[in-house]
């Protein structure tokens, strides 16, 4: 079964990349890296919120 592609800023995760230029691929890579950073920051914020809640309810 094929995985469904996820749209990402004008391109698709899992799509055929062979028709893209080096410049397009580098821009795509940079956009993906920026998204990874954004997701990691969101995970950190959520983890901090959860830890604060756990500490509050341990009282």
TrEMBL record:
UniProt xrefs under InterPro entries: DUF1192 (IPR009579)
One Pfam family hit: DUF1192
Domain of life: Bacteria
Listed name of the protein: DUF1192 domain-containing protein
Source organism: Limoniibacter endophyticus
Lineage of origin: Bacteria, Pseudomonadati, Pseudomonadota, Alphaproteobacteria, Hyphomicrobiales
């Amino acid at each position: 079964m094929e995985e469904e592609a996820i749209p990402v800023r004008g391109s698709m995760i899992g799509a055929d990349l062979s028709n893209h230029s080096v410049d397009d691929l580098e821009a795509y890579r940079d956009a993906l890296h920026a998204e990874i950073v954004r997701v990691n920051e969101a995970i950190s914020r959520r983890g901090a919120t959860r830890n604060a809640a756990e500490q509050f309810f341990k009282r």
